[in-house]
């Protein structure tokens, strides 16, 4: 080997060591702390990205953090509905959920998506436990009733929100070294299944657990001031600014429930909320274990 080659190898190794050292303080700080990670339906579409993301989650667990995976699957539910000849219908961003839709949504979320995420975690040599109505249930909820502008109730069918969680179950699963995988389906007091928006389910979990962090993995690098200009990605936002960006329409569509949920979580004691790109390999590790994140962080 030439001396040039040797120098490159040593420099390269030193650089790798520096990366580990940078991570050390963050690893120490987050040991034994809950981090709620929400994986959106758009991010779930890319198999290779999901595999690499799950490797990151396993890394987090291995260095002592308690990652909790909450997932949606809106696109897959809509596709399954179309295949069953049912037209998806949304009211104020929530899927109108009649009996048949509930059956499809809960089956896609729990039986297909949670199971396949857990299988992939196991295939990568770690432990995972799907927690839902068909296994051991973690999310408890109530029916959600929205109001129209004239004050009349809006019928959403079997749609709910999370009002409590089984904290003992989560602690038991995390301490047994497994990664909880939770679909956005809650059970009400009578055992009725409720379809819950996954952003709000993740935020409720983070809020009740007073998690260190709530991370949304989506199909954008973070929040843009102008969605057509990649140079306008904002790396740091405070709650007041977020409210203003929603009000003036800079933040719209699918980003609104995420940011609303983020503000609610921060108000209830969650340390920080991050919005990162699920398609970028190792985005979550770069966001959490390095001095400069790569997505958008939202703080109180
Ligand atoms: N200011 C903004 N910056 C970035 N994305 C935005 C913004 N406003 C709206 N969006 C939209 O929000 C979408 C993410 O929400 P959504 O599609 O519901 O994702 P998920 O399936 O991950 O929940 C982005 O793909 C983007 O189109
Ligand atoms: C009530 C309601 O709308 N539930 C959502 C649950 C899945 C979800 O939120 O998935 P994403 O994270 O991919 O959007 C739905 O049926 O689509």
Structural class: alpha/beta
Low-confidence stretches: none
Number of domains: 1
Principal-axis shape: globular
Write out the strand line-up for the largest beta sheet, numbering strands in chain order: 5-10-2-1-13-17-18-16
Q: Radius of gyration in whole Å, from Cα? A: 20 Å
End-to-end Cα distance = 54 Å
The major pleated sheet works out as: 8 strands, mixed
- The CATH C-level class name: Alpha Beta
Q: What is the CATH architecture descriptor? A: 3-Layer(aba) Sandwich
Helix fraction by DSSP (H/I, runs of at least 4):
40-55%
CATH superfamily: Acetylglutamate kinase-like
Q: What is the helix/strand order?
A: HEHHEHEEHEEEEEHEEEHEEEEHHEHE
Average pLDDT, rounded to a whole number, is 93
Number of helices: 10
Percent of residues in beta strands?
15-25%
Characterize the structure shown.
It catalyses: N-acetyl-L-glutamate + ATP = N-acetyl-L-glutamyl 5-phosphate + ADP. This protein is of the alpha/beta class. It has one domain: Carbamate kinase. The chain is 44% helix and 23% strand. It has helices at residues 3-30, 41-44, 47-62, 74-83, 99-123, 167-175, 198-209, 239-247, 255-267, 283-288, and strands at residues 34-39, 66-71, 90-91, 94-95, 127-130, 139-143, 146-147, 153-154, 160-165, 178-183, 185-187, 193-195, 213-218, 223-224, 233-234, 236-238, 272-277, 296-299. The strands form 6 sheets. It has an 8-stranded mixed β-sheet with strand order 5-10-2-1-13-17-18-16, sandwiched between helices. A two-stranded antiparallel sheet has the order 3-4. The chain has a two-stranded antiparallel sheet with strand order 6-9. Strand 7 (146-147) and strand 8 (153-154) form a beta hairpin. Bound molecules: adenosine-5'-diphosphate and N-acetyl-L-glutamyl 5-phosphate. Adenosine-5'-diphosphate binds at residues 40-43, 72, 74, 218-220, 223-224, 227, 250-255. The site of adenosine-5'-diphosphate has 18 residues, from helix 2 and strand 14.
């Amino acid at each position: 080997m030439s001396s040039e080659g040797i120098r490159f190898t040593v420099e390269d190794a030193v650089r790798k060591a520096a990366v580990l050292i940078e991570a050390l303080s963050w690893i120490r700080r987050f040991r034994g702390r809950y981090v709620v990670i929400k994986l959106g339906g758009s991010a779930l579409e890319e198999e290779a990205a999901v595999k690499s993301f799950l490797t990151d989650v396993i890394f987090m667990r291995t260095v002592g953090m308690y990652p909790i995976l909450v997932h949606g699957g809106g696109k897959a539910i809509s596709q399954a509905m179309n295949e069953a000849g049912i037209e998806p219908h949304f009211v104020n961003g929530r899927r109108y959920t009649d009996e048949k839709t509930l059956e499809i949504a809960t089956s896609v979320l729990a039986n297909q998506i949670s199971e396949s995420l857990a299988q992939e975690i196991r295939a990568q040599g770690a432990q995972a436990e799907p927690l839902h109505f068909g296994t051991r249930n973690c999310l408890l909820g109530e029916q959600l009733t929205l109001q129209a502008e004239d004050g009349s109730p809006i019928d959403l069918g079997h749609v709910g929100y999370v009002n409590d969680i089984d904290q003992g179950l989560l602690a038991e699963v995390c301490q047994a070294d497994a990664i909880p995988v939770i679909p956005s389906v809650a059970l009400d007091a009578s055992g009725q299944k409720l379809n819950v928006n996954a952003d709000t389910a993740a935020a409720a979990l983070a809020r009740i657990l007073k998690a260190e962090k709530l991370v949304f993995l989506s199909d954008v690098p973070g929040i843009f001031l102008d969605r057509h200009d990649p140079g306008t990605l904002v790396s740091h936002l405070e709650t007041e600014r977020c409210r203003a960006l929603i009000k003036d329409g800079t933040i719209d569509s699918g980003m609104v429930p995420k940011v609303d949920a983020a503000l609610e979580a921060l108000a209830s004691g969650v340390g920080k909320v991050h919005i990162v790109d699920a398609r970028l390999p190792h985005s979550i590790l770069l966001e959490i274990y390095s001095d400069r994140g790569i997505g958008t962080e939202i703080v109180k």
